[in-house]
Amino acid sequence: MSDSPENYPIRLQKYLARAGAASRRGSEDLMTAGRVTVNGQVVRELGFKVTPGVDQVSVDDVPVLYGQAPSYLMLHKPAGYLTTMDDPQGRPTVRELIPVNEIPGLFPVGRLDYDTTGLLLFMTDGELAHRLLHPSRHVPKRYRVLADGEVSESAADLLRQGVELHDGMTKPAEVEIGEVRPKQLTPREQLRLSEDKTFSAYQTEVTCTITEGRKRQIKRMFSYIDHPVLELARIAFGSLELGDLPVGDWRHLTEDEITQLRDNG
């Protein structure tokens, strides 16, 4: 007799979800993509049942054990990678940067644009991921923004109050204006500076915290105040801090970080 908590057949997607491989919906996606095997055979049928402790289940040829703890890690995403686990066009994806062979079922929580860097959270805990991304939770996300021009307090106040974008009014943001410094201009930009009065020779470092997750939201907010984003990095997600994690590296979350993250969610 197996010592598994369940010795009767259950749906495969339920097994995968309870084993921490992915959320229930994510488990179905793994199955339909042909990434799940049972006793060595690929299974795509969503109604397929397995018996914990008896059947051998694997994702991407890595065994998935029923009842194993979910995995959580953060990546310092570089620019030039799509936040997806698969791209039909063959472009670089964040999948290439994380240990998918050792931890099957990892998925990103939210997304960062192709050219945006910084903290990207991955986990196999679908329930927590759903809670963290739900609009009602208002999980704060902090960004370091390099904005074009000299950002004034009056411009920052617009973001602090909320601005009207095409998909509605934004919630008030926390904004701290940092260093204003000159750009390193190319000869062509030097010429443009003398001819175009709207072109600025300066750029401003700004820290901006939002509690929403709209597509390209930071970039659209700064375009609204006429200070387009030149560089963007996420430095915090909820209670998690990117810290000094090198670009392109990842690490597991600590137990304290996981606990705090669950409190966020």
Molecular structure report:
The chain is an alpha+beta fold. Helix content is 23%, strand content 28%. It has seven helices and 17 strands. The chain has helices at residues 12-18, 24-32, 126-133, 153-161, 187-195, 217-224, 255-264, and strands spanning 10-11, 36-38, 41-42, 49-50, 57-59, 62-63, 72-77, 107-109, 117-123, 141-148, 164-165, 168-169, 174-182, 202-210, 229-237, 240-241, 250-252. Strands 7, 8, 9, 10, 13, 14, 15, 16 and 17 form a nine-stranded mixed beta sheet that branches. Strands 3-2-5-6 form a four-stranded antiparallel beta sheet. A hairpin with a 7-residue loop joins strand 8 (107-109) and strand 9. The longest helix has 10 residues, at 255-264. The radius of gyration is 22 Å and the shape is elongated. The chain starts with 9 loop residues before the first strand and ends with a helix. The model is unreliable at 1-5 (pLDDT under 50).
CA radius of gyration: 22 Å
For the biggest sheet, the summary is:
9 strands, mixed
- The number of E-state strands comes to 17
| Overall body shape | elongated
Give the H and E element order: EHHEEEEEEEEHEHEEEHEHEEEH
C-alpha end-to-end distance: 38 Å
| Fraction of residues in β-strands | 25-35%
In DSSP terms (H or I, runs of 4 or more residues), the helix count works out at: 7
What structural class is derived from the secondary structure elements?
alpha+beta
pLDDT < 50 stretches: 1-5
Helix proportion of residues, in percent? Answer: 10-25%
Question: Mean of the pLDDT scores?
Answer: 90
